[in-house]
Design goal:
The protein is an alpha+beta fold and 712 residues long. It has 26 helices and seven strands.
Length: 712
């Protein structure tokens, strides 16, 4: 493989010398984009029949490779063999590398050597057809090359005789295999010939089909005998000499050859190089637990997001450069600015959309992949038709490659636009918009004129136009944003008190766990293999954050799985979990996920079994109690069930204390009758009157008096 790498580098350096940028640029400009695209597609279609060689090999030799694997490796093998060649050594070496099994090395190598001889039967068949055509059409010039064609014709029978005589070993070539390979060879060489002739028709050259077909066959025979990789040099010289002899201009022949080499050899070779690099990368990646590919794809995604932002900015700013639209009848009634705004409106829309897509890709949202590809393809066609510069087109093509390469690392189901990201992108939108306006004023030569005729404000016509354009762009990007956001799923479920109570009653839980019953939070459960909900946590979703109240509650052995599932699900839905008021034992789990921690304040615990009011240390507390007693205040803990009039009285006290303010919740209990009816309450009474002070105790009845709940 190292030798192949060196040969590829050598061939690339040689091609760089043989194809100059100026020559290609002049040819591309004169031919046009659509013809070039047509030739590129046609050239690759002519290359495709070669893939069948490896599909036949995989089936006959029982290599047990998948079709995808075989096609990918076949493109590498045949594109390298076409250009590098070396008498079939590259062909056999790469096939041996990709299709050999253990303990079958020598057998497969012998088989490949025999099989390679049948790859050339197609040109033998074409030699026969073209010689017959030359005799029929009485070609006086090209018939002089009849001996080359006769030599090509004799190759087929010769190979047939040799294969029959030397086909007795264990790994012999069957008649079915030789026939399939021969037919594939005929299709391959015929496709190459038809593509070569098609280029002449695209260039509007006046040629005759069969004479040119004969020239193609003769030139390839000369190239094969020279053993030069791809016949480069000898094939070209033969083509130029013979075509010039029948009256075709040498410069046109040069263009013809360059296009043939480019689309039949170079383009497949470049694709083969990409697959080859990918193959080497996969091998290296597997040896290193796929860490390199993750790093490379992550870098590729960062690069993609940056390019999308740059591309978006360029497309928006491009509208500040006026185009001459006076020749287009549709825009004759508009001034220069309005005509360009209409003509380049799609550029404005795509530009702002690319910035949004850059953010969505940065968040690795799945739906962003399809949207990005569609928008990039639209932008590519628009840029080509509108005559955008090479920079924009190159950025679009690079973006298409990167989004294809990184599509597998997009895993989030929806796009959640955080306020931080909205703020940053708004600054980007504002900066690009401001720069575009300034450049437009300069380039369009806009001058502000005073006017006496307006309804509300001066320059209101221009102001209305700007509002309309801004509104259309906003709604178009809003549609894209809604698509990226998806169904806006939330984590957890609405409170089911019965389920939560079952978990709290069954397992040893913390005091704060009962806050799950308040009803202002959703509940995220963990289900074991049997479908039983064994533990849960209280959560609240706010924008892109999911706030977790306190520790998980339930079966402690399942806490780690609960947290792991929760963090994974939150990540998939594009939420950022924030854990509030958690204890030390759960910070250990969260530390493994890369969380950082901030400590606020302290928490005191009083063990009631050891708590006494005697002694000098409790003097101040005793004084407070005496003052309460003098005022007739008494303390009492009451337990459910409660009467309706009792709950109504508590509601009045709560409303009086709130005095119209909104009661805080989340990490605190608040007045909720369904919640309060589940737990004991501490009351302070003024004599025999109704309670004048109320403290909600959110602990479950069965846990009352248990030391682990007696916290202050």
């Amino acid at each position: 493989m190292i030798g192949v790498v060196f040969l590829v580098i050598f061939e690339l350096s040689k091609l760089r010398r043989e194809f100059s940028y100026d020559e290609l640029s002049n040819i591309f400009t004169s031919i046009g984009f659509f013809k070039l695209t047509f030739l590129m597609v046609l050239g690759f279609l002519a290359f495709i029949p070669m893939i069948n060689y490896d599909l036949i090999l995989n089936r006959f030799a029982n290599c047990e490779k998948s079709i995808k694997y075989t096609i990918k490796r076949s493109i590498i093998i045949n594109s390298f063999n076409n250009l590098i060649g070396f008498g079939g050594l590259i062909n056999m070496g790469l096939r041996f590398r990709y299709f050999a099994k253990e303990n079958d090395d020598k057998k497969l190598l012998k088989f490949l050597a025999k099989s390679f001889l049948f790859d050339l039967t197609g040109i033998s068949f074409l030699s026969l057809i073209t010689l017959i055509s030359l005799i029929i059409y009485k070609s006086t010039i090209i018939i002089n090359y009849k001996y080359w064609l006769i030599g090509g014709i004799l190759y087929g029978p010769l190979i047939l005789i040799v294969s029959l005589y030397k086909n007795t070993d264990e790994f012999h070539i069957s008649k079915k295999y030789s026939l399939d390979v021969s037919l594939t060879s005929i299709v391959e060489w015929t496709s190459a010939m038809l593509f070569f002739i098609s280029i002449a028709y695209v260039l509007d050259l006046k040629i005759k089909f069969f004479p040119v077909a004969a020239i193609f066959v003769v030139a390839n025979l000369i190239g094969l005998i020279s053993f030069i990789p791809g016949g480069l040099g000898s094939f070209d010289l033969a083509i130029i000499t013979i075509l010039s002899s029948i009256g075709i201009n040498t410069n046109e022949v040069f263009t013809w050859l360059i296009l043939y080499r480019l689309f039949y050899y170079i383009v497949p070779f470049i694709i083969g190089i990409l697959f080859f690099i990918s193959d080497l990368g996969e091998s290296f990646d597997l040896k290193n637990d796929k860490i390199p590919s993750k790093i490379v794809k992550s870098i590729g995604l960062d690069l993609l997001c940056l390019i999308l932002y740059i591309l978006g900015a360029l497309m928006v700013i491009s509208i500040s450069v006026p185009d001459n639209l006076s020749k287009i009848r549709l825009f004759k009634g508009f001034n220069l600015l309005n005509a360009n705004l209409i003509y380049q409106f799609l550029s404005l829309l795509l530009g702002f959309s690319f910035i949004l897509l850059g953010r969505a890709n940065r968040k690795r949202v799945k739906s962003a992949v399809k949207a990005t590809i569609i928008y990039l393809l639209i932008a590519l066609f628009y840029c080509i038709l509108s005559g955008f510069s090479f920079i924009e087109i190159s950025l679009i093509i690079i973006s298409l490659i990167l989004i294809t390469f990184t599509r597998e690392i997009h895993f989030r189901k929806q796009f959640v636009y955080s306020m931080e990201n909205i703020t940053l992108d708004s600054i980007v939108y504002f900066a690009i918009g401001t720069l575009t306006v300034i450049l437009s004023v300069i380039n369009y030569g806009i001058k502000i004129k005073r006017t006496r005729y307006f309804i509300l404000i001066p320059f209101e016509k221009s102001f209305v136009n700007i509002i309309i354009i801004t509104g259309i762009v906003y709604f178009a990007t809003r549609i894209l944003m809604d698509y990226l956001k998806g169904n806006k799923e939330k984590l957890g479920e609405k409170l089911n008190r019965q389920t939560v109570l079952e978990i709290l009653n069954k397992y040893d839980c913390y005091a704060e766990s009962a806050l799950a019953l308040v009803g202002d939070k959703d509940i995220y459960y963990y289900e074991n293999e049997n479908g039983e909900k064994t533990c849960a946590m209280s959560i609240c979703t706010y924008r892109d954050r999911v706030l977790v109240m306190g520790d998980a509650f339930g079966k402690k052995e399942d806490f780690k799985k609960l947290i792991e599932n929760f963090v994974t699900d939150a990540d998939k839905l594009c939420y950022n979990p924030v854990f509030y008021e958690i204890k030390e034992n759960q910070t250990i789990y969260l530390h493994d996920f890369g969380y950082s921690f901030i400590k606020f304040g302290e928490k005191a615990k009083v063990k009631l079994s050891d708590f006494v009011m005697e002694g000098p240390k409790r003097k101040s507390q005793r004084n407070v109690i005496k003052k309460f007693e003098k005022k007739g205040l008494s303390f009492e803990i009451v337990s459910p069930p409660y009467q309706d009039d009792f709950m109504e009285e508590l509601k009045k006290i709560s409303d009086s204390w709130l005095d119209g303010r909104i009661e805080k919740g989340f990490s605190l209990g608040f007045f909720n009758e369904d919640y309060l009816k589940l737990c004991p309450m501490a009351l302070v009474k003024d004599g025999e009157k109704n309670p004048c002070f109320l403290k909600y105790n959110a602990h479950l009845r069965r846990n009352l008096g248990n030391n682990r709940f007696n916290e202050i």
